[in-house]
Amino acid sequence: MTVIDTAPLGVANPSSTTTVHLSGEIDIFSSAALRRRLLNTLHYSTSLLIIDLSQVSFCDAGGLAVLVGIQHRARRMGITLALRAPRPFMSRLLRTTGLDRGLPMVA
């Protein structure tokens, strides 16, 4: 799994959006590193954190747990987490688990 973080360095600008682009597989082997990276990103995120899923090729229950956990942490910090461009398999997974109702999508 690769994380490309396009968040600003230093102090966050609340008028801009923080975007994290993920690629590859989000599974038991990569979910702990992803969790650490996203928690770190929250510390300098703006009021909106977008996770771009367009290049994610696989996601298991551990990956979904990371997304839900980060969303809960973000809410406590006053940050909205949204997902962008999930591939069809990921959209089905989110729909099947009901997470599509709790994790907002942006165009």
Automatic annotation (TrEMBL):
Domain STAS: 7-107
SUPFAM superfamilies membership: SpoIIaa-like
PROSITE patterns given in the database record: STAS
UniProt superkingdom: Bacteria
Pfam families recorded: STAS
CDD domains in the cross-refs: STAS_anti-anti-sigma_factors (cd07043)
Family as reported in the entry's similarity comment: Belongs to the anti-sigma-factor antagonist family.
PANTHER family in alphabetical order: ANTI-SIGMA FACTOR ANTAGONIST TM_1081-RELATED, ANTI-SIGMA FACTOR ANTAGONIST TM_1081-RELATED-RELATED
NCBIfam families listed in its UniProt record: ant_ant_sig (TIGR00377)
Protein name: Anti-sigma factor antagonist
Organism: Nonomuraea angiospora
